[in-house]
Sequence to fold (277 residues):
Amino acid sequence: MEIVNTISDMKALRRRVSESVGFVPTMGYLHEGHLSLVRQARNENSTAVVSIFVNPTQFGPAEDLNKYPRDLDRDISLLQHVETDILFLPKGEEIYPKEFDSWVEVLGITDRLEGMIRPGHFRGVTTVVSKLFNIVEPTCAYFGQKDAQQAKAIEKMVRDLNINVKITVGPTVRETDGLAMSSRNSYLNQQERQAATILYKTLQLSEALWQAGETNAEVIKNKMIALIDQEPLAVIDYVSIADDRTLHEFTEIAGPALVSLAVRIGHTRLIDNLMLK
Ligand code: AMP
Fold:
């Protein structure tokens, strides 16, 4: 695995690859969710590139940028095991030099859900991802369904701006008790880790109700909220049942629906989602 730290070295390496390049952008502290995307990139392309960059512009002022978990040695060893060809580790000063003034913003779909609670978050994500696309010039890029709204914003950006990359969204990888894998799970103490299973239980409840024939989104959401309220450590940011295409809230579930939620367990904010289709 080649490790590159500068934009010019990454571009020089890219010029040497003429066949397909699969790219997985990450913020590191890797887990099986990331690695599943790297394996897919590996299988579907001749070269697999992974980036690790904790992107400051997607964190709000009161968020966890400074304590975001990092373990580069462990990440390098995990990436070597899945046969990553290139690891790109750009420096913050090079990605955002002092005179940096240009932003990429996707409107509409980013107003809701995470965008409501985390203003500016998606602008940071789409800006850094478009910069990384320009540097790495991937043929295909891989994102996780775990961050469904992020994947949608990136798909929209690629369509709207005619960026020459194919986006693939991989399924959410879960722990055996259903908790979606996340670097932020490392913040949870033992009691909180147990409480965090409420997210997937609640998503499963929505699926069971829908499969039993309930199509009234308010009825399902109220039962989801009541279940989360039984967990004393959980505080709800939102519970949503939205049109998977537009992310507008459904009143009646009238097509493929994205059920998503954001719940705080102690100081840790967790998100998860599931598709009803
Ligand atoms: P992050 O390092 O959190 O920015 O995530 C990098 C990529 O991995 C994003 O496309 C995420 O959606 C994806 N990802 C994170 N957690 C999971 C998971 N549990 N299953 C699948 N993909 C994931």
About this structure: Strands lie at 2-4, 21-26, 47-52, 86-88, 140-144, 166-170, 234-243, 257-265, 268-276.
